[in-house]
Amino acid sequence: MLGVIGALVGALIGSAASFGGQIYVGHQQVAKEDRDKKAAVYFAYLDAANELANETRDLQRSYASLPPDAPPPAAAYGEWQTARFKYQGAINDLSVYGSDAAWDIHRRVAAALPRSLNPSRDPVRVEAVDDARLTSGTQDFLDLACQELPASPRAGCGD
What domain count does the chain have? Predict the structure, then answer.
């Protein structure tokens, strides 16, 4: 009888250990999936911010050759609008999947990029890209990604 009880206790302990291991592996898998999603969102955001900055510069070069009252150059303006929409989509994803620290850095990056003023009713005014601020914000974002995305961040993250 003692042998049966010992076997049952052993089986319970083994089952509990196995179940605990499964929970640990499950948590590790969820954490990895979260980091993977966050990485995709962070790098898509940075790509979209850089694309908007580049399209802004291209649009400003196109405007420079036109008289002051001329309508926006259609091709350059269309590419700028596409980049603007892509950036807004990346902001939306960042607002859902990004950390509070990422959102704070996003605000600094966004302040370096142009804003459009209701293109359907008023002439579009495109502000210049603040390159120093964009570079600084991008570097801060990369430093944060280095800290948040790897399972074991390297010692020099953020330096």
Answer: 1
For the whole model, what pTM was predicted? 0.76
| Strand, coil or helix: 71 | coil
**Position 59 in a domain:** yes
pLDDT tens for each residue of 55-105: 989 888 887 778 877 777 888 888 988 999 999 999 999 999 999 999 999
Note whether residue 31 is domain-resident.
Answer: no
Do the Cβ atoms of 138 and 110 come closer than 8 Å?
Answer: no
Residue 116, SS3 per DSSP: coil
For residue 81, what are the domain limits?
40-148
Write the CB contacts of 2 (distance below 8 Å, at least 6 apart in sequence).
none
90's CB contacts (< 8 A; 6+ apart) are: 41, 44, 45, 47, 48, 49
CA distance 55 to 81: 9
